[in-house]
């Protein structure tokens, strides 16, 4: 990862595949495109929502072992992102946009600005690319985009009701 400002961009050859230049890619799967395969540096994770309400997101490695999980907050946006024993926060970084800071304690590792799927669904700013595992960054982008989609659905239902 050599560039600090990146965009998750749709692959023109494969509408389900998105590339984060210099980091890796994620490919959406399933009818609802709610699952993804994340690939970076010769490693891969499978990411998918789990649970009854499908708000929690888990990633497993190639052997099917847990690699990461995201547990959303019940009231406010964002939540806890766990990778092994490491606990990070995906915290709201804007009141008006779907922008989230990936934090390790008080240290900000990346900022992700997300919107629903399109040609460029997530913009990522990374101050120190060596501080963030590429698969973790792709997982955070996948989760941020899901949060943006949930936010858009909530806004749509609020305005129609």
Description:
The structure is a single chain. The protein is α+β, with helices and mostly antiparallel strands and 161 residues long. It contains 1 helix and 12 strands, in the order ββββββββββββα. The protein has a 12-stranded antiparallel β-barrel. A hairpin with a 6-residue loop joins strand 9 (86-92) and strand 10 (99-104). The longest helix is centred in the last third of the chain and has 27 residues, at 134-160. The mean pLDDT is 89.
Topology, element by element:
Blueprint: E1 5-11, E2 14-20, E3 24-29, E4 35-40, E5 43-50, E6 56-61, E7 66-72, E8 79-83, E9 86-92, E10 99-104, E11 107-114, E12 122-126, H1 134-160
Antiparallel strand pairs: 1-2, 1-12, 2-3, 3-4, 4-5, 5-6, 6-7, 7-8, 8-9, 9-10, 10-11, 11-12
What's the quick description here?
This protein has one helix at residues 134-160, and strands at residues 5-11, 14-20, 24-29, 35-40, 43-50, 56-61, 66-72, 79-83, 86-92, 99-104, 107-114, 122-126. The protein has a 12-stranded antiparallel barrel. It is of the alpha+beta class.
Helix percentage: 10-25%
Q: Report the count of strand segments.
A: 12
Which consecutive residue ranges, at least 5 long each, have pLDDT under 50?
A: none
Q: What radius of gyration results from the CA coordinates?
A: 15 Å
Describe the strand arrangement of the main beta sheet, using strand numbers. 1-2-3-4-5-6-7-8-9-10-11-12
Query: Separation of termini?
Result: 45 Å
Biggest sheet, in brief?
A: 12 strands, antiparallel, barrel
Strand content: over 45%
Q: SSE string, helix = H, strand = E? A: EEEEEEEEEEEEH
Structural class: alpha+beta
* Arithmetic mean pLDDT: 89
* SS field, number of helical segments: 1
Overall form: globular
């Amino acid at each position: 990862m050599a560039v600090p400002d990146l965009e998750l961009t749709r692959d023109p050859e494969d509408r389900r595949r998105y590339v984060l230049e210099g980091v890796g890619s994620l490919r959406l799967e399933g009818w609802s495109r709610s699952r993804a395969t994340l690939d970076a540096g010769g490693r891969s994770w499978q990411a998918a929502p789990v649970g009854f309400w499908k708000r929690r997101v888990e990633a497993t490695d190639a052997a099917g072992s847990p690699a990461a999980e995201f547990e959303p907050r019940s009231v406010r946006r964002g939540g806890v992102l766990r990778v092994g024993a490491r606990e990070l926060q995906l915290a709201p970084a804007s009141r008006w946009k779907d922008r989230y800071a990936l934090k390790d304690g008080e240290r900000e590792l990346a900022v992700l600005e997300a919107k629903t799927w399109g040609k460029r669904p997530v913009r990522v700013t990374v101050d120190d690319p060596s501080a963030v595992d590429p698969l973790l960054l792709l997982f955070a982008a996948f989760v941020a985009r899901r949060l943006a989609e949930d936010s858009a659905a909530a806004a749509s239902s609020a305005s129609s009701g």
